[in-house]
Every structure is written in structure tokens, then in C-alpha cells.
């Protein structure tokens, strides 16, 4: 994203915020929240809610709002809302839209997902800072560096995994990274690494989960003779390919499509599914609840 | 729908209602409405809102709520809400869910849409009373009468159009009909007829509107060599096939598909598109705004 | 299907046939087959071919053809083709289109798939004789008997499985059944039963296989939080839900959809997927190769 | 595409060709063609056929074949086939796969379609030479020149149209261009220009044709309140947006999507639809028949 785009974006967003709430369901929540916002002079731009169950369920809400000079009143809004939150035992967050999230991308040798993310980012459709891109191979360097994004090639072998992860964590900390996107990064992250980034690592798996968990999903899809192939974007947890699903999509294939063709068709599903998932995350549209996502 | 299904439905729905609102956008609307509902002891089950524009736009909202003994307090709720409504210059309605809408179906010789509606209705997925089905042909009688629904065959010629429409209107009035579904009814209704049923007549047009307005859309789709065919459900206005669109869908076709095949493929799109549109109408999910629909 | 429809169909189809071939790939197959047909005065209406691999692969072909007075020359065509077939070591069949396949439908309590099949059959879109419908419950009787199709209710318990299967096999033999459709038949057939009907039993599984093999797929899809649900039609083999896949499709769902809603959405996928698979089978479009299908 | 990719491609394709045929339908065509190929030692890799009508229709066929040392026998094959062709009054062509088509791309300010084409081309999925890219604006230069493709910026005003077209034609002739892709080129080409490139200009129109012919389709789709938007790739003829359709696709939109959002969603449909159409053209899969396409 060019600097002038960033300036326009921040100017445009500076008085907007997103409120995310989850709490035990009971009458009066919407009234209390919307009254609070009204009293602060805020105007609700969009609002979504969902309850897991009518009786004793969990209530979830996302509100986009704007208020005059909001960017100067962050602390005020946060302190003020604490009272409402306590009354309803809420887990909550107010995210101020002008603060762009800081996103790291991890990639290996397959570059189609990275390309799509960078393309969307250049068009101003993925609003994030990208302070660094990390790979275990050199392949991505030639498409990353022309965009003035720092590229770190950290090759890994079984023996060096732990050391390389420490270096990765150091880089993430150094750049205050908020979200990590695994854009076909073909290494499994250690439980320690994952634990430190809970619900902050977004992966793309090249199958329609829970079908074909693990390695070589296109080969296995070919062997099984499926008539549709898919891709799944999910948050990474310790259980391989078992994390909360954010988005999935599929395309039709037939008996003529060999593994090479499945990979080619699959690549176009992967890139659009991952781009949508990342976009929703950046816009704070996703609430993780247990092993599922609510996408508002 | 069997009587016992109806009883269960009404029991289940008797304390539920839907509030539809549209008004000039301004801060405080959600707060005022949700506070009103909270004070009446109502619990919000689902809520959706939309503004046409951030500045001086129109605001739309649909809230599903339940309240103890709601069915005994209809007048109270309506009177009470009038104050909120006046303050914000709202157009609004509160629809009590246990009152099933009374739906008439018009059909000609093609029965696939009628079949789908009756099937969904028998499965309890279209909650409506169907006091009568009207046709200009006898074909539908054999599938309608076994279901104990009165069937009126009113043949029409150019000369008798006016007289038959009068008879239709008399039947609609006599049965207190709320909504008319044209399930491939192949006659054009007069402006007078339409004017008396504004936003209450749902049609299925067998093309992807605005492509192929008017007669013989499949023949014209074939001649044009399109690669997708579609169907559109919309509210009927005086302008042929120009009313507010509720739902559309398409399927892929290719050079091998002749007109007969297009009609066959199209029939399956028509029936699912119409069924979805009717369902949304019965659940009060649709607000007509100018020549468009907001579907919550 | 009404008798007059059947007569028209048979009149229309009486000089048409389908040739199915599979053999080791080598040059000259198409030339030999098409020359044979040309010499018999046949005209090729449609032709499809596929090879698993360019070198030493398997070659598959389906040809639809017509020839004057074909219905009187069945033996001639079959004897004549034997020479071509031997030269290329073909597995092959010539199916004469006017001979309608004899189809039995098995169903339990969920009737949506049966309804769809009967509907397509009544519209003349599934060309088959249906000499009987078998169920382990009484539920389907009221929609089967009005169509003058014999309905057999054979309740099963664990203890009676073997005896009931014998009775089923007796009925299938008595009615010279060619193909069995399991339209949500919720019992597992014994290996003996399946072995006697190889590639002749078509099942609909209510998930996107290989995800959610076995029982309660909608419940498990809900628990996993998938964003798409699907259905799969396949030939039945001894391995539960592992047989060759014929057709699959999916629909989008979201966090708001509970299990009941998933089942409802799924039902509409199931019925269209099964209807397509059955249609392709009746039109001899499917060749089973190992554990996969080629669908021409 | 890198040189080494090209070398591999040509090595791989050097003995492959595609035969395209159209002629009045009659028995014996397939036999004659396949016998010819067999006698030349050719092996059929894929074959498709289609007839417009069973009686007195037009017959179309595409055969992919390979033969040892084919690239050295081009004249032989062409001369040899002439006899078969004359017997059946065929229009026909044999295209030798190793000869890559020479493709020019025209673009204006919107670059998403160009980007997609270049991306597919770099990945080796669009096998063509791209000797030049022409634009009436400078915007594309920065993504074209790094790929070592000559970029010509030829600005146009109403007054200079004729002169610029002459320059364009000169460039196309100089570079022996076989196919022109209008990747969101926002100028209407003159009838003279189009006449000289019959069925050789591929356009992407940003609507689901025949809906929204002409300018500003997204604005008009928004005004009409459609629930799906689409894109159409077609050959260019003199009638604006009326040429033979090659491919179409759509995506779902709703009342919340403003024109900006429709354009964004539409862009992703446009790029995939155009890329598919161009690919099919390069693989000689398309036969134009009247105002329609047969896509094999």
C-alpha cells in the first residue's frame, strides 16, 4: 500500500471503531450497549448479533460505530464501557479502525496465496501493515522485495526447527506483529509457538476440511475420486488442521482432471478463501467461540 | 400442513413478534427501540439493520423478539411503540408470529413451482394458510384437491379478463388473502389488480432479470447462446418484470443444451428461487425500498 | 410415468443404443469402432472418450448411436461387435435405449429423496420402470400407493436382518430389478447382499465424502463448525460410504444454522444430487473403474 | 514465461496437434476421420463432437492427437486430410500445438484483468507469446515492463481514433498477432478494425450479458437491485456486447453492497472469466457457429 493510500485510509477511519462483545444471554444487553453509545454521541453504522441458544446461551455482538473526534477519546470510551461490561459479565474489545493491524506472512515455495494477498493489499483492499514476510525458501524474494517489504529467508531442517522458531518469534516481537498468515507455509509450527499466538495465526489448508486432514490432500482427493475439491482457512491450534474454520469454498472437478489439474484448480480456491478470511480478521468480523467461528 | 402441526407452531410462536422499521437515519434509533423493548420485558432474538448512506440516508431495521404473554398484549405493544415511532418519523409494523399469513397461489399449466411450494408447506417449512389456489387451467386440480385445498379453475380469454379478475378479487377478499404467489401463472394482471395488492404479489420469472424480460426467455437464452440460465423472484408492479427483485439464482448450461433441456434445468432453479422468496416474505424479512428490496 | 408417456418414449428410442467400452489404450480403437458402426448403417449421436494415461493407460468410450430398425437387429449388432472387441481386449456393452431399466427404491422415514425421484419420474425425466418400493417403515406408503407402485413394508430388527434381506432379494429377483436406489434407507446392507448387486446399488450419503463417513453427519458438521455442507451419491460397496463417488454438491451455511437448519438445507442438496446420479446411471453415462467413476 | 519453460513446452508439445472440423451432419464422418488419423500413425488423445440437430444439422468435432515426428510432417497431414475434408464438405483446421499463438493485450486504467493474464502466463498456464501490450493510458506500464514485454501507450481522443487504430493495426501486423485480448480496454473499436480480426478479439464485459449491455453496468445493476452480478467474455463483433459468448460467471450480492463493492466483487469474476476464455481460445477449444460458441 502506498503512503498516500494509508493517509487517506486513516483520515477516513479516524473516528470509527468496532465493538466486539460476548456474554451470557439475557434481556437488556442491546438496550444497554446502544444507550451507552448514544450517550457518547456515537452513531451505529452496522450491528450484528447472535445467540447460541435462546435459553442460557451465549450472546455475541459486533457493532461498527463512529463518533466525532473518536480518535482522541479512546481511553474515555474504554473506561466508560467497562461499567456496561461488568453488569453483563462481558468479554469485550473496542478496536479503533485507523490503527492498522500489523501482519506477518509466512510462505514456502508455492506463491499463489502470497501473490493474492499482496495484490489485494496493493489495491487497498487488505488494510494492514506488512512489516515482514518470512520464508523457509528463497522463491518469494523476487516478488516481495520490489514492494519494499523486508523479506527474511530462514531455512529449516528438523534439527534447526527450535532455533529458527526462536528467531521467528524474535522478529514477530520486534515488529509488534498482530496477526500471522500462513500462505502455504509448509512447516508445522510447534505447540509453544502456537500457544503464544492464540487465534492470531490464520492458515489455508488445501482441502475441504475435515476431509483430507494432513499431507497431500490433492493426491488423496484424486485417489478417492471426489467430484468437488476445496480449500479451508482456519485459525491454527495444536491439533493439525483442527482449528476453528473461518471460510471454505469448493470447485467442481471430474474424472479427466489429474493431480496437476486439481492443484491448479485448487490454487484459485485457496487464494480467494484465504484472502476472504484474512480480510474478515482485519475487519474484526470474527469471534472465536470454542472450536468454531462466528463471522459477522 | 396438518392441524396438529399448526397447533404446535402457534404454541411455539405465540409470544414472538417481528418489528420492521424504516426512517431517516440519525443517532439514537437503536438505543430508543431496544430500550422500549427491554422495558416491555421483551428479549431480542435477532436483529438486523442497514442504512442506505451514512449521511442523511434511510435506516432500516428488523428485530425478532419474544416477551411473556405477548399474544395478550398486542394492542399494548403497538400503542406503546407509537411514541418511539413518532419521535423518529418511522414507518413501522409489528407482526405477531403466531398469526399465519393467508396465501393464495395462482398457477397455469406448468406445475413444478406449485409442487415445490406445496411440498415445503406440507413439511412445515412454509408457515402459511393456503385458503385457495386459482388457475386458468384444470391441470393443477389433481395435485391440489388431495391436500384439501379449494381449487378454482377460472379460464380466461382476452374478452373475459376483466370479469375473471373481478371474480379473483372477490375470492381474495372473501378469504382475507395477505399474499398472492404467481407460481408460473402465465397471464398478465391488470394495473388495477396490481395496484390493489402493492408488494403483496410475488412472481417467478424464468430468466435472470433484467435479461430476457417478457415472453419465451428460454428460447431467447438459447438463441443468444448464454452459458448460464437463471430465474428471478420479484414483487409484481405495473411494469412487466420490472418490480423489486427478491431473489435470483442461476445454473451453468452449455452448447449441447437445447431449449427443452434449458427449460428442464430452469425449472429446478425456478422452484428453489420462488420457495426462498416466499419463505422470506412469510417471515417478514423483506422491506421494499423504492424499486429494491432489503432482505434481512 | 403414464402409459402413453412410456409408449412415446419407446417409439422415440427404439432405434437408439449406447455402446460402452473400456480396454487397454492403443492407436486405432476409435477408427475400428466408428468403422464398425458406419458399416452397420449407424449414425453416431454423441461420443465421449477418456484415457487414464497416455502411455499404457486404460481407454474408456461411450457412444450413443442410432440405426434404422435397430431394435430388430440387437443380436446382429452384438455378434458383430464381438470381433472388434476381441481385437482390442475390450470390456463392453451395447444397451438398447428402449428397454427401460427396472429400478427398486429403498427408503426409511425421511421421504424427501423418494419424493424427488417420484416427481422426476412422473415428469418423464427419469426413464425407468419402478416395479416396487421397499421400506422398513410405513411412512412412505401414503405417497407411493396413489402412484400405483407396489409398496412393501419390511420392518427390520437386528435379529431379523438376514431373513428380511432374503425376502428383499426374493422380491428383487421376482421383479427382475436392474438397479436399487437407497433413497435415505437407514440400514446397512450385508456384504452378501451388496456382493450380489455390484455397481447396481446407488446410495445418497448426507455429507461431503470423505468428510463425515458414517452416522449423524449433520450433527458432526455442526460440531466441527464447517461453512459448507454437502451430499454425496455413490455406488455401495462393502466399505461403508467408501464406494465409487458418482456426484457431489454443497451449499453454504453459517454460524446461525443449527442442526435442524443444516438438515433442512442438506435435504435439498441430497435430493438433487441423488436425482442426478440416478439419471446418469439410467442413461448409461457411468463407468466404474477401480474405486472411481467416469461420468460421460 | 521464461525461455526454459518455453523450451520444455515446445519439446513436450512438438508431436501434438488439434483437428477442428465442422460440416453438414451425415453418417461416417467419425469413421473417416479416425481412420485417416490411424493410417498416419496418430493416436487420439481426446475427442469431442456435437451436432446442432439430428436431422440435417451441422456436425462439429475437435480431436487432439499425437503422432511420431508430427512436427516434421505438417504439410503431409494437411494435404492428406484435404481428401477427407472434401468428401464431407468440411470447414477444418489442423493446429500444431508447439506453435504458440501470438497474443496482444489491450488495456486501459483498470489493471486486474491484465494482472490475472500475466500471472497465469508467468505460471505457464497460458501458453502464448505476448509480443506487445497496448494501452491508451500509462497505468499498466509499471507492471508490464518488469516482465520484458514491450508496452505501447497510444492515447486516444475522438479526433485521433482513426489514426491510433491505424497505428495499432500496424503494430499487430508487424508482430504477426493471432489473437487480441481486450482486458478492460475501455474504447470501442471501429467496424473496420473488428472486421479485420474476425473471431480473433476476445473481450470481457463487466455484466451478465445480455443484461446491462453498454456503459456502467455495475451502476445499473445497483440501481436495478439485482441479487447476483456477473461478467461475460465474448468475441467482439460490430454490435456492441452482442458477439458470441465464450464464458460467463456470477457472484451473489445483497442490499448492503454499494457500487464500489459491486465493482470489487465483479473484478474477481471478470478476471477468472476472461482467463478461462483466453485459455480455451489458446487451446483451440472454441468453434464459433453463427452467433454462438461451441466450447469443447
UniProtKB/TrEMBL annotation, chains A, B, C, D:
Q: Which GO terms describe its molecular function?
A: formyltetrahydrofolate deformylase activity
Q: Which residues form the active site?
A: 241
Q: Which InterPro entries match?
A: ACT-like_dom_sf, ACT_dom, Formyl-FH4-Hydrolase_C, Formyl_transf_N, Formyl_transf_N_sf, PurU, PurU_ACT
UniProt EC number? 3.5.1.10
Using the record's annotation, list all stretches that form the ACT domain.
Answer: 18-90
Domain of life of the source: Bacteria
Asked if the keyword tRNA-binding belongs to this entry, the reply reads no
Q: Which UniProt keywords apply?
A: Hydrolase, One-carbon metabolism, Purine biosynthesis
Put simply, this protein is called Formyltetrahydrofolate deformylase
Instruction: State the species of origin.
Output: Pradoshia eiseniae
- As recorded in Swiss-Prot or TrEMBL, the protein's gene is named purU
Amino acid at each position: 500500500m502506498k503512503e498516500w493510500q494509508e493517509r487517506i485510509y486513516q483520515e477516513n477511519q479516524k473516528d470509527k471503531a468496532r465493538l466486539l462483545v460476548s456474554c451470557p444471554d439475557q434481556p437488556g444487553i442491546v438496550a444497554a450497549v446502544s444507550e451507552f453509545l448514544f450517550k457518547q454521541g456515537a452513531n451505529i453504522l452496522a450491528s450484528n448479533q447472535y445467540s447460541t441458544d435462546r435459553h442460557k446461551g451465549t450472546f455475541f455482538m459486533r457493532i461498527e460505530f463512529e463518533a466525532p473526534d473518536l480518535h482522541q477519546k479512546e481511553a474515555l470510551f474504554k473506561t466508560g464501557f467497562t461499567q456496561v461490561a461488568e453488569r453483563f459479565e462481558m468479554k469485550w474489545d473496542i478496536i479503533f479502525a485507523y490503527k492498522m493491524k500489523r501482519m506477518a506472512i509466512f510462505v514456502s515455495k508455492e506463491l499463489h496465496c502470497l501473490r493474492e494477498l499482496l495484490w489485494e493489499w496493493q489495491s487497498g483492499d487488505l488494510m494492514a501493515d506488512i512489516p515482514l514476510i518470512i520464508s523457509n525458501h528463497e522463491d518469494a524474494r523476487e516478488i516481495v522485495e520490489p514492494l519494499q517489504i523486508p523479506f527474511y529467508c530462514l531455512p529449516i531442517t528438523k534439527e534447526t526447527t527450535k532455533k529458527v522458531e526462536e528467531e521467528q518469534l524474535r522478529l514477530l516481537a520486534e515488529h509488534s506483529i498482530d496477526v500471522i498468515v500462513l500462505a502455504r507455509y509448509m512447516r508445522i509450527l510447534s505447540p509453544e509457538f502456537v500457544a503464544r499466538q492464540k487465534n492470531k495465526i490464520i492458515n489455508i489448508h488445501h482441502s475441504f476440511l475435515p476431509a483430507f486432514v494432513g499431507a497431500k490432500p490433492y493426491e488423496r482427493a484424486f485417489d478417492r475420486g471426489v467430484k468437488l475439491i476445496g480449500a479451508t482457512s482456519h485459525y491454527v491450534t495444536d491439533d493439525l488442521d483442527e482449528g476453528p474454520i473461518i471460510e471454505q469454498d469448493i470447485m467442481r472437478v471430474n474424472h479427466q482432471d489429474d493431480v496437476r489439474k486439481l492443484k491448479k484448480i485448487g490454487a484459485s480456491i485457496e487464494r480467494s478463501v484465504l484472502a476472504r478470511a484474512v480480510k474478515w480478521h482485519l475487519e474484526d468480523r470474527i469471534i472465536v467461540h470454542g472450536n468454531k467461528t462466528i463471522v459477522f
